[in-house]
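Appendix B, record 7
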Amino acid sequence: MKSRITPGRRGSSRLAMLGALVLALASAAAPVQAKLYKWVDENGNVHYSDTVPPEHARQGREVKSKSGQTVEEVPPPPTEEELERQRREQARREAEREREAERRERDRVLLMSYSSVEQIERTRDQRLDTLESRINITESRLEKLRGDLERERERAAAAERSGRGDPAQIHQRVEEIVDRIERNEAVIEDTRREMDQIREQFAAEIERYQELTDE
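Structure tokens (predicted):
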């Protein structure tokens, strides 16, 4: 026996289908998950809203779902002090990279320039010998100048006793000799400092060469 659908039942079925369609469309049009913002004002009060006021937009905030779950954390922008620290840190890292590049270049030149520790030592000794020769020549010059100074002082004393000669001219020659002596003594001091620097430089190069070559 076939079942029959009465007009009343047919209308109810259509209404049910229409209601389901409306609910489906409403669900599709609604956002999947509405967002709620949690932010703190200048007085420390906590607020929840679906938007953040413009004056508080630069503060840190949390984005929450309607169920209260945190879905995103937006940190506040860095302060000027933090930005300055970041700039200093960036400058420090860049300087460190430059130092590392310079160190690698020095290592490359060192390995290209020498084939053994003995060769480094020979180069050092040659430079020291050259400077030692400069000191010896300057000391010989100083010895002569000191003799000239002694003779000029004796002449000045004799001129004063006898009242003859030009004391001013003699004193001028004495001053010139004293100036030359001082300049030559400075040359010797500078050369000895240079020799000390060379010893330190080559000691560091030998140590680094041994580190690089395990020699």
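Remarks on this record: Residues 167-213 form the longest helix (47 residues). Residues 195 and 215 are 26 Å apart (CA to CA).
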